[in-house]
UniProtKB/TrEMBL annotation:
GO-annotated biological processes: amino acid transport
Residue spans crossing the bilayer: 6-28, 40-65, 71-92, 113-137, 149-169, 189-210
Domain of life: Bacteria
One Pfam family matching this protein: LysE
Name under which the protein is recorded: Threonine/homoserine/homoserine lactone efflux protein
Membrane topology: Multi-pass membrane protein
Record key words, sorted: Cell membrane, Membrane, Transmembrane, Transmembrane helix
One GO CC annotation: plasma membrane
Keyword Cell membrane carried by entry: yes
Keyword Plastid attributed: no
Source organism of this protein record: Flavobacterium noncentrifugens
Length: 211
């Protein structure tokens, strides 16, 4: 159980963070369609390795933040304001913006492994994402800042990332209609998620001050 919990948490949080259509997973899908599944999997491996390091950096940083409850609650209050603003923005944007199908241009013929690492390294979203996730999970006693727990969580995040990329590589043609639906409704989906996070964060802040 001590091994399974952080592995499962890392797997599902990483999968959730990567599964929405984006540059890296759509690039992985295009590599698969144009150059074959093997090269696409090599690309996904490079991208997943970078996610491992990004997760480790984020969790270590979150550990120092978590040692100071005042910083944690301040970040939650800032997060509440940010996520509330994002919720309003995405629901308003969903009514105005007509989504266009995202095209990924690829010209490089270099190693897909290093290309995956490069694209993943240029994506800084995982670091604040995992800082927020680890602190939030820790506040509900689902995350422990111990070496074994952290390393297992990081491993789970790498596996979850690769799984998300693999889904795009293996099932992109079958998922194309669903992907189009997601792209058309992405603002509503993100707005709903940020809205839910805002509610949970607000409840957590109220509980902190209620003590």
């Amino acid at each position: 159980m001590a091994f399974a919990l952080p592995l499962v948490l890392g797997f599902f949080t990483s999968t959730f963070g990567i599964i929405p259509p984006g540059l890296i997973n759509m690039t992985a899908a295009k590599v698969s369609l144009k150059e074959g599944r093997t090269r696409a999997l090599v690309f996904a491996s490079g991208a997943s390795i970078v996610v491992l390091f990004q997760t480790l950096i984020a969790v270590v940083f979150a550990h120092y933040i978590d040692d100071n409850p005042q910083i944690v609650i301040m970040l939650r209050e800032i997060g509440l304001a940010v996520f509330t603003a994002l919720t309003i923005y995405f629901f308003l944007a969903a009514k105005k913006v007509k989504p266009k199908k995202k095209q990924v241009k690829m010209h490089s013929k270099r190693s897909r492994f290093f290309m995956g690492m490069l694209l993943s390294a240029l994506n800084f979203f995982p670091i604040p994402f995992y800082v927020f996730v680890s602190i939030t999970l820790a506040s509900y006693n689902y995350f422990i800042f111990e070496k074994s727990f952290i390393y297992t969580f990081v491993l789970g995040s790498g596996i979850g990332s690769f799984f998300a990329f693999y889904c795009y590589i293996a099932f992109f043609k079958k998922m194309e209609e669903q992907t189009t639906f997601i792209l058309k409704n992405m603002n509503y989906i993100i707005g709903s998620v940020t809205g839910l996070v805002s509610v949970l964060t607000a409840i957590n802040i109220i509980q902190f001050y209620w003590k």
